[in-house]
Design goal:
Helix content: 10-25%
Order of helices and strands: EEEHEEEHHEEEHEEEEHEEHEEEEHE
Pfam families: Aminotran_4 (PF01063)
Bound molecules: 2-OXO-4-methylpentanoic acid
Largest sheet: 9 strands, mixed
Structural class: alpha+beta
GO molecular function: L-isoleucine-2-oxoglutarate transaminase activity; L-leucine-2-oxoglutarate transaminase activity; L-valine-2-oxoglutarate transaminase activity
Function: Acts on leucine, isoleucine and valine.
Radius of gyration: 21 Å
Oligomer: single chain
Number of strands: 20
Cofactor: pyridoxal 5'-phosphate
Number of helices: 7
Protein name: Branched-chain-amino-acid aminotransferase
Number of domains: 2
Length: 352
């Protein structure tokens, strides 16, 4: 296995960045990590200046969408120590996604060495204080110049970083999908495959025109069961019970999602992981037992949903009370992520 090469930049661009105004994912740090897959092995792990890469126009990623990614965040505590949250889970998941897209697995040593060295170089970009984080985007693309429709023999694995505040700038209301689908049985819905996201853009743009920010996808067969929002897994609070759909080959196994379920268990909050029907949520809305809907994800953290629409049925969620679940879970997660609370499940990973 080849050794990591680090070519650090002489002049950082950090002084030109306004950290108080950070639209999500538009500002990138000084460096990036890359590693190439050629002749059946991953070689040339390198950290170099962030910037454009050159690819042959026939690279298979452009034609067949052979691309997978991850979303992670780094946090800093008051002592300037840097932490990741459950990074092993991201590592496992990118390889699970890669496997489904016939992309070779990435070695664990390269992933963690590249990631941690990159974060140490970019430590000034990680600001202290809740709400500040460095969003980390590992991804793999098929680079082989060849347009025959088969798996590539050459790939590039990269990690880029973007200082982040919140993902959704404003209020989020959703449409429950009735026509379009995000994923189907036996498909790639569980993978963080680039195409899963691109395929949502058009239906989501139609939702935007109606004043809704996101779609909660329903099962492709019947459109009767609520699955996930594409950028987030989804939770429903009915009375005091927290309900979410089980993961499947159609739904992303969200790391924030499973952390919320564990925190609920730790705090004696009743949970039900089972198919959630559109009909029962509309019924709960009508009879007053639907108290909250929120999304969970790395980028979004915990994002309350203020209203939903399904056909002609429109509903505004009640105003959040003091003991609302979305604020509770957001605080509980953030306290662990920013090293402000006990980490009884060893989710925090200190970067050294
Ligand atoms: C994440 O939450 O990290 C994701 O990958 C979702 C993406 C749409 C920002």
């Amino acid at each position: 296995m080849t050794k990591l090469t680090i070519n650090s930049v002489k002049n950082s661009k950090i002084d030109h960045v306004n950290f108080n105004e950070l639209p999500f994912g538009k500002v990138f740090t000084d460096h990036m990590f890359s590693c190439d897959y050629v002749n059946g092995e991953w070689v040339n792990p390198t950290i170099s200046e962030y910037g454009p890469i050159s690819l042959d126009p026939s690279a298979r990623v452009f034609h067949y969408g052979q691309a997978v990614f991850e979303g992670m965040k780094a946090y800093k505590d008051e002592n300037d120590d840097i932490f990741l949250f459950r990074p092993e889970d991201n590592f496992d998941r990118i390889n699970k996604s890669a496997h489904r897209l016939a992309i070779p697995e990435f070695p664990k040593e390269f992933f963690f060495e590249g990631l941690e060295q990159l974060l140490l170089l970019e430590k000034e970009w990680i600001k202290t204080g809740k709400g500040n984080s460095l969003y980390i985007r590992p991804f793999v693309i098929a680079t082989q110049p060849a347009i025959s429709a088969s798996p590539a023999e050459e790939y590039k694995f990269m990690i880029i970083c973007s200082p982040a505040k919140s993902y959704y700038a404003g209020e989020v209301r959703v449409i429950f999908a009735e026509e379009y689908s995000r994923s189907a049985n036996g498909g790639v819905g569980y993978a963080k495959a680039a195409g899963n996201y691109g395929a949502q853009f058009y239906p989501t743009s139609l939702a935007h025109k109606e004043g809704y920010q996101q779609i909660i996808w329903t099962d492709a067969n019947t459109h009767e069961y609520l699955e996930e929002a594409g950028t987030m897994n989804i939770f429903f609070r009915v009375n005091d019970t927290l309900i979410t759909a089980p993961t499947s080959d159609r739904i992303l196994d969200g790391i924030t999602r499973k952390s919320v379920l564990q925190l609920a268990k730790d705090n004696n909050i009743a949970t039900e992981v089972r198919p959630v029907s559109v009909a029962e949520i509309k019924e709960a809305a009508n009879n007053g037992s639907l108290k909250e809907i929120f999304g969970s994800g790395t980028a979004a953290v915990i994002n309350p949903i203020l209203g939903f629409k399904h056909g002609d049925f429109k509903f505004e969620l009640p105003a959040l009370t003091d003991n609302n679940y979305s604020s509770f879970f957001k605080k509980a997660l953030n306290d662990i992520q920013y090293n402000l609370a006990e980490d009884k499940h060893q989710w925090r990973h200190k970067v050294t």
